[in-house]
Amino acid sequence: MASRADIAQRRKQADAALELSRINREIERRIHQLLDGEKLRDVTPAQANAMMILFQEKAPLTARQLARQMNLSEVTVGRFVRALEGAGWVKREADPKDTRAILIRPSTKAYRAFPRFLNVSNALLDVAFDGFTKKEVETLGRLVERVRMNVVVEE
Questions:
Q1: 91 with 40: CB under 8 angstroms?
Q2: Element (H or E) spanning 94, and its range?
Q3: Do you know which Pfam families this protein is assigned to (predicted)?
Q4: Predicted confidence (pLDDT) at residue 154 exceeds the cutoff of 80
Q5: Residues in CB range of 118: below 8 A, 6 or more apart
Q6: Distance (Å, rounded) from C-alpha 61 to C-alpha 80?
Q7: 44: left (phi over 0), alpha (psi -120 to 50) or beta
Q8: What is the Cα–Cα distance from 106 to 35, expressed in whole angstroms?
């Protein structure tokens, strides 16, 4: 039988897990508003995340690489890429090193809009971490990474 301390600890864990889920939903809602404010209405929050990863990498990625970085299935990322390509945000091209692989890169349109994507990202970070010290952000980052590593299932 679990002790009161064990039950209290389990409750705190459950509350933290629920709060992380709530935060994720609120972040998506806020990103949607920020994208709308930057007139990036044809991009979903998840697609904007994919775009930011492509911008950060400064090199084209395969759908598999993008899926791994986003912790999503290749099928889901494939849908993002098709939608982004249809809207003119990305280009797909054959990988010269592997004829079976397709590389994804931001389009000229995307690079022109990069400052607006960056505005969305910065505005979200400013709101999310308002009042945090540098040390608190570093500590939170380590703790969240630790939780993520605990729950990641290696394929």
A1: no
A2: strand 90-95
A3: MarR
A4: no
A5: none
A6: 14
A7: beta
A8: 17
Considering just the CA atoms, what is the radius of gyration of the chain in Å? 19
Given a contact cutoff of 8 angstroms between Cβ atoms, the answer to whether 106 and 54 are in contact is: yes
Q: What is the CATH number of the domain that holds 126?
A: 1.10.10.10
> What is the spatial distance between Cα 123 and Cα 48, in angstroms, rounded to a whole number?
14
Scan for tokens 């791994």, then name that residue: 68
Instruction: Give the range of the structural domain holding residue 76, as residue numbers without chain letter.
Output: 4-151
Q: Given the structure tokens 């990498």, which residue do they identify? A: 57
**Count of alpha carbons within 13 angstroms of residue 9, beta-carbon side:** 5
Q: How far is CA 26 from CA 9, 20, 30, 124, in A?
A: 26, 10, 6, 11
Which residue(s) pair with 98 in the sheet?
A: 95
pLDDT digits (tens, 9 = 90+) for 22-31: 999 999 999 9
Sheet strands side by side (includes 61-62): 61-62, 98-106, 90-95
pLDDT tens-place string over residues 37-94: 999 999 999 999 999 999 999 889 998 899 999 988 999 999 989 999 999 999 999 8
